[in-house]
Specification:
about 375 residues
Length: about 375
């Protein structure tokens, strides 16, 4: 995109931010990612068919199933018919479209490639939704096993062991059986205090997570946790690289792309690192040099960025980074699942086995005493 177009994109971006500040979205909640993907996919097809934007929005408004989204689309259509560009009309609803998407739409409007940019938005949203689904799926099985183990332990402690305690009480018992009876007695006798303490601990952790500085510390060190840390790290790298590639392909300047991408990164520690990198790029430093002192991004990222700078194909370089690390992430998730699943089964089996052995040992001791 020519320099004048870059300047126009920057000006449009500033107008979008000003419009976002002075406009309020009709809904305080966002819409589902599925609704957004379907909207942009159909919108891209309508725009490619040379249907006027206002008419295309009207068609999609009549077909939208979410009442919340219908209100948003009606407002966008009204603003467009009032003479407002599509990007600014969307910017009035930041919780629905966001700065990233509105910046890409603005670049597509100014470059005359709106249909192409809308397709890229669809591809980006679908890839990000697929990545999130893989990350969530990888955590479902361990979560289910942990919940099941907790439920089994609570059932044994509150119902099974107390009944045996009535039978075995007052006798000399093996250490394993006595430990189970003591632990069950302590838990059942202090159930209210333990429950309040557990709820208070969870509430305190949630409140701490709401403090930015605490989030930064947690996000900084969670990528170094054994086994799961690499999954967190590669997930952020894939998200960052995919977003950068989509923005640069749409004609957004490097500085604006870095700024918009930083806002999409959920890891606050990495977000602040990217903001510092952006400041160095603003000062005239090449991106590869600005990233050289960053310990988060793998060496491969710096190498690909250097290739992109020398070849002038920075968008393709970031797309390559995203594809490579997405495959690496899939491999990490597969290995993690292969290691965690049997480990959790062994732990759950060990807990149940210990309880069963303790109770059986107590029964054997009782019969031996007769």
């Amino acid at each position: 995109m020519p320099t004048s177009s870059y300047t126009a994109v920057n000006s449009a971006g500033r107008r979008i931010k000003d419009r976002r500040d002075e406009s309020r979205t009709l809904t305080w909640r966002s819409v589902s990612n599925r609704d957004r993907i379907l909207f942009f996919r159909m919108f891209a097809a309508l725009v490619a068919s040379r249907i006027p934007i206002s008419e295309a929005i009207g068609i999609l408004w009549t077909q939208a199933q979410s009442r919340r989204f219908k209100k948003v689309l009606f407002d966008v259509k009204r603003r467009i018919e009032g003479g407002m560009p599509l990007s600014q009309a969307m910017a009035a609803h930041p919780r629905i479209f966001g700065e990233l998407l509105t910046s890409m739409v603005a670049a597509g409007e100014l470059g005359g490639i709106l249909d192409t940019v809308l397709e890229r938005i669809c591809d980006y949203l679908e890839r990000w939704a697929a990545l999130r689904a893989r990350l969530i799926t990888s955590m479902i099985y361990p979560t289910v096993v942990v919940v099941a183990a907790t439920a089994v332990v609570i059932f044994l402690v509150t119902f099974v062991i107390p009944k045996f305690a009535m039978i075995l009480g007052g006798r000399k018992l093996p250490a394993s059986t006595q430990f189970l009876l003591d632990a069950s007695g302590f838990i059942t006798g202090n159930a209210l205090s333990l429950s309040v303490g557990a709820i208070g601990t969870v509430a305190a952790l949630i409140m701490l997570m709401m403090i930015p500085e605490t989030r930064v510390v947690i996000d900084r060190y969670k990528i170094h946790v054994p086994l799961v840390g690499s999954v967190f790290r590669f997930g952020v790298v894939v998200q960052f690289a995919t977003t950068m590639a989509s923005l640069l392909e749409s004609g957004i300047t490097l500085v604006d792309a870095l700024q918009a991408t930083a806002q999409t990164v959920t890891n606050l520690s990495v977000r602040r690192q990217v903001e510092r990198v952006n400041d160095r790029v603003l000062a005239g430093e090449p991106l590869s040099s600005a990233l050289s002192g960053d310990r988060f991004f793998p060496p491969m990222v710096m190498a690909m960025v250097q290739v992109g700078e020398h070849s002038g194909l920075m968008d393709q370089a970031w797309a390559t980074v995203g594809r490579i690390h997405e495959k690496l992430l899939e491999d990490k998730i597969s290995r993690l699942s292969a290691m965690v699943e049997p480990a959790l089964i062994i732990v759950l089996g060990g807990i149940v086995g210990y309880v069963a052995w303790g109770l059986i040992a107590g029964m054997l001791a009782m019969y031996a005493s007769h």
